[in-house]
Design goal:
Layout lengths: L6 H10 L12 E2 L2 H11 L6 E5 L5 H9 L2 E6 L5 H7 L6 E5 L7 H8 L3 E6 L5 H10 L4 E9 H8 L9 H9 E9 L4 E2 L6 E8 L9 H13 L5 H6 L8 H10 L13 H10 L1
Parallel strand pairs: 2-3, 2-5, 3-4, 5-6
Antiparallel strand pairs: 1-8, 6-9, 7-9
Helix pairs in contact: 6-8, 9-12
The structure holds S-adenosylmethionine.
Length: 281
């Protein structure tokens, strides 16, 4: 099968099947072989690997993955793409195509069946980037790494540190589970149709153990409340979140014990400081 990273090959397949892009599924297909090479190199795929690809589209990246991995499991929600994938991937015996919504799939079961941690590689549908990534982390799916194309702005938020405008709940959640690194910036003209925004490839290496010792549920409840009301002081934000049951005064006392001003905002605290606060509360 022809390399679908070359634009005219993709166009030929789209025309043959009279494929109509569905906006609701975040469909922007990659048509740039250099970007595909960069993604594959960053994910460090070997014959030992079982790769989960989320949203294979017409199978462009799947072909690259199948050339290198022991096995590829490609999960696609759009039924119109399944017959296309069956043709474009017919030469690869190590690919399994699953017609499903990734958010409803038992990915942990897949890793368990294979008996090894998975590598996840995807050009993600942008409308569900965060639920996909957080779902993989929070359900503790055994993973080696995740290499994904996301909106540039989301990549910036994943990597951001305290005191910057991009810093927030997503930065802290990702950095609790993994070490994120932007490996490529990708302009809109590398996709068909072109997205309205720039994209970036982020590789996340999952930590074997999180960098802080803390009760996870409580930490994330505090983080969510802190950034729900970003412009307020941390003590006020937590005091205004009834689900936490933590008074403004208790947060103030804990912050003082940590040597921080009682008027500090959540955006100034590092992951370590959020963990210390969570443990004190
Ligand atoms: N991997 C292809 C490529 O790079 O050319 C397509 C990437 S496109 C940005 C996102 C893909 O995810 C589309 O094929 C879309 O139909 C699929 N998708 C969207 N929502 C999904 C979901 N909930 N579960 C599985 N696939 C989904």
């Amino acid at each position: 099968m022809a390399n679908l990273g070359i634009p005219h090959n993709t166009i030929e397949v789209l025309q043959k099947y009279r494929f109509r892009f569905q906006k609701k599924y975040g469909q922007n297909f990659l048509i740039d072989t250099r970007v595909l090479d960069k993604i594959i190199a960053a994910a460090e795929i070997t014959e030992e690997d079982c790769v989960l690809e989320i949203g294979p589209g017409i199978g462009t990246m799947t072909q690259y993955l199948a050339e290198r991995a022991g096995e590829v499991v490609a999960v696609e929600i759009d039924g119109n793409l399944i017959p296309i994938l069956e043709e474009t991937l017919s030469a690869y015996k190590n690919v399994t195509i699953i017609h499903q919504d990734i958010l409803k799939m038992d990915v942990e079961g897949l890793a368990r069946e294979r008996g090894k941690p998975l590598k996840v590689v995807a050009n993600l549908p942008y409308y569900i980037t965060t639920p996909i990534i957080m779902g993989l982390f929070e359900k503790h799916v055994p993973l080696k790494n995740i290499t994904v194309m996301v909106q540039k702005e989301v990549a910036d938020r994943m990597q951001a540190g305290p005191g910057t405008k991009d810093y927030g709940a997503l930065s802290l959640a990702v950095q609790y589970y993994a070490k994120p690194e932007v490996v490529a910036n990708v302009p809109p003209n590398c996709f068909i149709p072109r997205p309205n925004v720039g994209s970036a490839v982020v590789r996340m290496d999952r930590y074997e153990a999180p960098p802080v010792q803390v009760e996870e549920g409580k930490l994330f409840a505090i983080i969510r409340a802190a950034f729900n009301q970003r412009r307020k002081t941390l003590a006020n934000s937590l005091g205004n979140a009834p689900e936490l049951g933590i008074s403004k005064e208790r947060t103030g006392e804990a912050l003082e014990r940590m040597g921080l001003p009682v008027t500090v905002r959540g955006e100034a605290l590092s992951l370590e400081q959020f963990a210390e606060l969570s443990n004190l509360l």
